[in-house]
Design brief:
Oligomer: heterodimer
Distance between the termini of chain A: 37 Å
Largest interface: A-B, 19 and 21 residues
Number of helices of chain A: 0
Order of helices and strands of chain A: EEEEEEEEEEE
Strand content of chain A: over 45%
Mean pLDDT of chain A: 94
Number of strands of chain B: 11
Low-confidence stretches of chain B: none
Radius of gyration of chain B: 13 Å
Number of helices of chain B: 0
Low-confidence stretches of chain A: none
Order of helices and strands of chain B: EEEEEEEEEEE
Shape of chain B: globular
Number of strands of chain A: 11
Largest sheet of chain A: 7 strands, mixed
Shape of chain A: globular
Radius of gyration of chain A: 13 Å
Distance between the termini of chain B: 37 Å
Structural class of chain A: mainly beta
Helix content of chain B: under 10%
């Protein structure tokens, strides 16, 4: 299994600012993903982080709002840009070397 | 129609009972299925994966897959209060490979009371 370190674990941010979330995996993985989980809801996929190329975004998510980087096979970042209170949520990264996805601990974001 | 749908909860069972969690999926081409457990305030952790029709047992957990009926279930025997969590069913996105994206069900909240 993969061990995934995600930081920050939580943050409180002001409206209009940006936050970058980092995800580090302890081994090289093929796939990395970013999810959002609203309180009491299931996971919604934001995008697939592709190594060396632009991320693939799901419907309803755009690069300008959620820019993603993946410079190598063990690291990725998600930026939540120009935040509003509606962005308050838990953001999770996951990684998969095989068909099984493992999750980081998540980032709990509150936007005031 | 949702691609992965779980039976509505919450589900409450007494300690020692069998908890039964169900999930249906729409993509007949799906080959692999996963059950994740998520404790409150924590991230999902994989507890079972199943790829073939029939049952797969791991300790107190049994996953059952019926591809003809397009459902997958998770049975928890001798339920313990520590099993109280949200259980998420997941399957590969329609048209995707098993190494690709997953679609998660809405989750079933399980409470095991002493």
């Amino acid at each position: 299994s993969a061990v995934i370190s995600q930081k920050p674990s939580r943050d409180i941010c002001q409206r209009g600012t940006s936050l970058t979330i980092q995800c580090q995996v302890d081994s090289q993985v093929t796939m990395m993903f970013w999810y959002r989980q609203q309180p009491g809801q299931s996971l919604t996929l934001i995008a697939t982080a592709n190594q060396g190329s632009e991320a693939t975004y799901e419907s309803g998510f755009v690069i300008d709002k959620f820019p993603i980087s993946r410079p190598n096979l063990t690291f990725s970042t998600l930026t939540v840009s120009n935040m509003s209170p509606e962005d308050s949520s838990i953001y999770l990264c996951s990684a998969a070397a095989t068909e099984i996805q493992y999750f980081g601990a998540g980032t709990r974001l509150s936007v005031l | 129609q949702k691609e992965v749908e779980q039976n509505s909860g919450p589900l409450s069972v007494p300690e020692g009972a069998i908890a039964s969690l169900n999930c249906t999926y729409s993509d007949r081409g799906s080959q692999s299925f996963f059950w994740y457990r998520q404790y409150s305030g924590k991230s999902p952790e994989l507890i079972m994966s199943i790829y073939s029709n029939g049952d797969k047992e791991d300790g107190r957990f049994t996953a059952q897959l019926n591809k003809a009926s397009q459902y997958v279930s998770l049975l928890i025997r001798d339920s313990q209060p520590s099993d109280s969590a949200t259980y998420l069913c997941a399957a590969p996105n329609a048209g995707g490979t098993s190494y690709g994206k997953l679609t998660f069900g809405q989750g079933t909240i399980l409470t095991v009371h002493p």
